Amino acid sequence: MLVDDVTRLGVPAGTPPPSRPGLRPGSRPGSNPSSPSVSRTAVDFGRFYSGQMLGGRYRIVRRLGRGGMGEVYLADDLSLEQPVALKFLPADVERDPARLAQLRQEVRMARQVSHPNICRVHDLADVDGVHCITMEYVDGEDLASLLKRIGRLPEEKAVDLARQLAAGVAAAHARGVLHRDLKPANVMVDGDGHVRVTDFGLAVAGAAGEGTHAGTPAYMAPEQLDGRPATERSDIFALGLVLYELFTGKRAFAAKTIDDLRHSHQYRELAPPSDVVSSLNPQINALILKCLDPDPAHRPASAFAVAAALPGGDPLAAALAAGETPSPELVAASGGEAATVTPLAGAVLVIFTIVALFVALMLADRFRLIARVPMPLSFAALDDRARTFERSVGVGGGAVDLASGFSVAGSPLAWILARESEEDRNARFRQARPAAVTFWHRSSPKDLAPMDARTKQTSPGDPPLLDSGMTLTFFDTTGRLIEFAAVPGRESRGGTEDSRRDAEDAETQRVLWKKFFEAAGLDMTAFSPTASLRAPRFFADQRLAWSGSATDLPGVPLRIEAASLNGSPTSFAIVGPWSPGAAPPPVAATATTGDLVSVIASAIIVPLCLTGGVLLARRNLQRGRGDRRGAIALGATVFALTIAEWLVGATHFLNLRSEQARVGAALSGALFSAAIYGLLYLAIEPQIRRVRPQMLVTWSRVMSGRLRDATLGRDLLIGAAAGAFCTLVTFAHYLLPQWLGGPAFPPAATHIVSLAGAGGAAGAIFARISDALLMSLIGGAGLMLLRIVIPDLRVCAAIATVIFAFLAAEGQIVTGRLWLDLSIGVLLVLPMLLVIMRYGFVAGAVAFAIHFFTKDLPTTLDTARPYFTTGLAVIVLTLACAIVGFVLARGRAPLFGKLLDEA
Which residue of 92, 178, 191, 458 has the lowest C-beta tally within 10 Å? Predict the structure, then answer.
């Protein structure tokens, strides 16, 4: 069989065609054609004549063409008063109910494909007992005739037609419709040079199974010739053959039989297009050869990728100009793979990130709370000191669970900040008495499981000290005891007279409490016994108190409160002017207008964005819109981050009963977070793709597995620079009150939990990444919600900046001056929104992540600080984003352009 023969749909190769007499001119469909007035072997006038009426609606104008899939006629639709094309089906399809049902299903699918570069299928009609397909009529010439008449097209025009052709094929594939008979004869070019792909969906009415061919063998992919089912990449192969003819004017393969064609495919007997046309653009030559690869896996992934690989132009912009909403695949394929930043721009961004990061680190060392207090001991050393102390006073020996961490002491911090001079405040911070940051240690004879299963970590008060044998000890950051509490054992209650006399032994008590004084760094001889003024936390048969002062706090009265039961200590506390109840509470400052506006705005903005996002997501799901694959991927990412944070940062227990409830709570919380993120994505993604799809290019490429893409590098680089800039603004605002002649800001109490070992720091990093994704989504949701009522995206950005500025001000900047808070808020919000609008969701998430890393996690340039390694990890992550981003953003181009070539 010749390769130009069109094989019938669903009919095994080699089956003889059934005979069906045609209708002579003048006969009606379904009438007896046994007495033709004109010999059809001499002149073929077709089944219908000009002017013939069909079904009382269609008037035949002329026959347009004939092929193995039937005859096509131009007709006037008298009901709608417009021309249509009528395609009458082959006889084998007419007589087979199963094939007719399959064809009806495919026509139903083809009707869903609406694209400027596709010939629209209207209906499968029954006209006087004969089935035909009604289609859009294209007033033009098919590509096969055009190429036969004029040869190859000029390259510029051919590129334009090729891009339209690929767009039409991609639109059909997006609806799940395969062509399987793509060839120049099925490509129409109208008088304005617009391409229409015809016969979409018709060649797949019968499934191409083993030994079954559908379409023209000369334009079949190798897998189709072998009897394997066709896929989208089979159409890509046919598209490559059409492009070969479009740019060269010749066929790619000169085989005459199917066997010869299989041989040509197997041994790559193909002359490169550049051998036929020496001036052909190398990019076009490489694209065509890639489309014609015998292995489907090596061909372009989609028709979108073919359109994107053509030189010049932007298929994304073309889709928007045509009023089309580009699909996620087209978004991913847009932009090509060229470098996205110049060497100079990349170097400037990297240098800026480094400078901004180190300036922010210097400011952090100056203003952060943990940078002001002394921290000579590591977390492990403080934990060991706490255990040693408990053993020395005879408690904690039977503990089966231990927990420890850092916390901010609010009352001592407020007392220090109330000092009049900055020098006095800094001196108080340095001497760590009173301690603004404390280290706490707990021991228990059973699991220290928080009461709420959703609570990730044990804290000083959760679970409460209720069980006998539980202890709680507070130290300052230098390792000095501040407070101690131990729940007495039941066996200690109501002891014998001898035990009571032992407990009252003065020497025994003096030795016992001397250990507490020594652990607190106090000289017991400098304190005088006095009456106890505080009731102990637990029942005690002896209460003691001492008054005096510490050498490092001259003139500041201190009182020591202690209690014991049967000689066993139950409480010890240093009471100073900063202690709760020791002095009247400070008068609460009156809330300013700026405070109220910021709090109200923050209470409205996030719930409004979340609520609006859920409603939009529901509407998009009901209408079948939205990138569900991307939403699932985002939800899975958030789920993994949430679980990872819980695994490394939460408190875990060997007791399965204690751990089981927490596993369930962690999984449910992670699933809820994943659902919220996915719904927000579904809410804004269709709108973004219709209005500004460039915001989703990087995300779409990452979802397709392109992790070394140049756009991803660009977003990493720009995100790192924007995040470092915002952190610089956050820390620099501490200088503003002093410049304005007002009181200095209190030091920032950073993410204290991350100080508790590597697990806490790693959990905080995972949490910040998740928060960054959410903030980027909320930023996009705010823009898209405004875009529904305001057409101009720039106006939306300006309004969103003002709205989100209140949220940023309330979250980290409260000066009491509304105009100042808003100014700083704008400096923080504007770069983030610009990054999201200009570069997209991924760049915004990177910017927020770097900002949160450098702002919230403990960082320092002082190598002696115990959290230096955590800060070093943050520095490495930030610099890695900038440097790796720069390398990836250069694509395949030399890193420093011509400078590298000349070196």
Answer: 191
For residues 667 and 771, what is the distance between their CA atoms, to the nearest angstrom?
A: 18
* Model confidence band, residue 8 (pLDDT cutoffs 50, 70, 90): very low
Closest CA to 856 of 769, 764, 736: 764
| Long-range contacts of the stretch 663-671 (C-beta < 8 A, 24+) | 664/453, 665/453, 665/454, 666/456, 666/642, 667/643, 669/454, 669/642, 670/638, 670/639, 670/642, 670/643, 670/646, 671/639
**Distance of alpha carbon 464 from alpha carbon 478, whole angstroms:** 26
CA distance 34 to 403: 99
The token pair that represents 419 in the structure block = 């000092």
pLDDT of residue 331: 73
For residues 83 and 190, give the distance between their C-alpha atoms in angstroms, rounded to a whole number: 15
Is 181 annotated as catalytic? Answer: yes
The region, left, alpha or beta by phi > 0 then psi within -120 to 50, assigned to residue 223 is: alpha
- What DSSP line would sit under 445-474, residue for residue? SS----SSTT--S-BTTBS-S-STT-EEEE
Is residue 724 within 8 A of residue 854, CB to CB? The reply is: yes
| Single-letter amino acid code for the residue at 480 | R
- What end-to-end distance do the CA atoms of the chain give, in Å? 61
Of 679, 692, 678, 676, the C-alpha closest to 786 is 692
Q: Is residue 133 within 8 Å of 107, Cβ to Cβ?
A: yes
* H helix intervals, 570-696: 593-622, 628-649, 656-691
Buried b (16+ CB within 10 A) or exposed e, 719-757: bbbbbbbbbbbbbebbebbeeeeeeebebbebbbbbbbb
The structural domains of the chain, ordered by start, are: 53-333 (1.10.510.10), 343-368+594-889 (no CATH), 377-477+479-575 (no CATH)
| Of 732, 737, 749, residue with least CA distance to 372 | 749
> What average pLDDT does the segment 413-426 reach?
80
pLDDT tens for 325-356 read 676 766 766 655 556 788 888 999 999 999 99
3-state secondary structure of 430: helix
At residue 539, φ and ψ (nearest 5 deg) are: -60, 135
Among residues 181, 401, 541, 709, the one annotated as catalytic is: 181
Instruction: Look at residue 35 and tell me whether its pLDDT is greater than 50.
Output: no
Count the Cβ atoms, other than its own, within 10 Å of residue 104.
12
Average the pLDDT over each of 108-117, 291-300, 524-533 and give the range with the smallest value: 108-117
Q: How far is CA 595 from the centre of its chain?
A: 33
List, as one string, the DSSP characters of 119-166. --EEEEEEETTEEEEEEE---EEEHHHHHHHH-SPPHHHHHHHHHHHH
120 with 136: CB under 8 angstroms?
A: yes
